[in-house]
Amino acid sequence: MAAKLILFPVPIGDGPIDTALPPYNREMLNTCRHFIVEDIRTARRNLKRMGYEAEIDDTTFFELNEHTPETDIAHYLDPIAQGSNVGLMSEAGLPCIADPGSLITSMAHRQGIEILPLVGPSSIFLALMASGFNGQNFAFNGYPPIDTNKLTASLKSLETRIYRDSQTQIFIEAPYRNDKLLALLASRLMPTTRICVACDLTLPTQYIRTRMARLWLTEPPQLHKRPAIFLLYK
Amino acid sequence: MAAKLILFPVPIGDGPIDTALPPYNREMLNTCRHFIVEDIRTARRNLKRMGYEAEIDDTTFFELNEHTPETDIAHYLDPIAQGSNVGLMSEAGLPCIADPGSLITSMAHRQGIEILPLVGPSSIFLALMASGFNGQNFAFNGYPPIDTNKLTASLKSLETRIYRDSQTQIFIEAPYRNDKLLALLASRLMPTTRICVACDLTLPTQYIRTRMARLWLTEPPQLHKRPAIFLLYK
Known about the structure:
Number of strands of chain A: 10
Low-confidence stretches of chain A: none
Shape of chain A: elongated
Helix content of chain A: 25-40%
Order of helices and strands of chain A: EHEHEHHEHEHEHEHEEE
Radius of gyration of chain A: 20 Å
Structural class of chain A: alpha/beta
Oligomer: homodimer
Largest sheet of chain A: 5 strands, parallel
Number of domains of chain A: 2
CATH superfamily of the largest domain in chain A: Tetrapyrrole methylase, N-terminal domain
CATH topology of the largest domain in chain A: Cobalt-precorrin-4 Transmethylase, domain 1
């Protein structure tokens, strides 16, 4: 079988692996000795908890983050030409979704390399499943603008897509800004637009709640520094 | 622990369960005796392969499809008030994504019922992971218009979002129309817009390929009646 690029999801929380990953992922993990990762230290820890059996000293890590020079990245898939699988791991969740991993998959397509994406958790899709919102038409928009005026303009345009196209709008925020964002959403959106807040997904403290924008103004949850997904729909 | 609504993903293909689902899902499956399903016959088969141990005769099925009267649906979550978990299963992939399950999750939110979404496969997200396209901003648009003129107009508007907002555009098609759709995409999109075709995901015949629109005009793959996802990006 030709060597390939394998995309490894990583559990979102610290819970047991068997809530997050199919057993097959562990089997595939142990076919790789080369991994492209965002941070080597957390990658080592994740490999261990995901059942990687080889010695870490026999493992090659390629770092992919904002400090990586493009000239380095160009060589990250070289082991595949020599017959060895390469694994691409996220820090948490699905690789290449809400992270810069597509630099690597895009390069793999240009080089005609086979890509094997594996099943795993994604807070975006778990939140969408549980939101009660339209799952037949939805958009993930990444981070909202920080500037309040720009955010207000952006919300106006997202509400157009919600009401005109029946498209659920999803975004994330830096966890220390969650409470501020929710307060802004609750006050700036049309009163009947619904907000779903999904927080600490897959953790024992998981919180998923959907209600109309104006109802979030009273007794809002404490989201400070907790990973959260925000979804909007009519 | 209070009874809840549990969202059960179903494997996409006929492959072994341990490539598709975390072991925890089986454990949760066996806490349910009530299931909301699209089709009872396929649901029975899926329950069996997913490791459901109770007798099917002791199991209650609530059907949710285009023939279900709304007055019936209103009672589907009643077992939860009586202390029993209710499971919501898709036909394949993640419930409430690209299916009408959000009718049920939306009702659960109105009734203050806790929702537990479980991890599983989704051809949409596996395709996005492997596409090489932007996973930090993307939209799933469901089915494209069948009428060729409407499709052309719709592609124009999707290309605007690709080039202006850097947003990956994703859609699906009825499998018997795949070949026709790909030919239309290849001829109607701007020549440098890239198309990713992801077909038979999680199956041994899996096919994932990304190239520029005009290159799909020569030697296109045979997609007839194979489940496929189409993704577009610059």
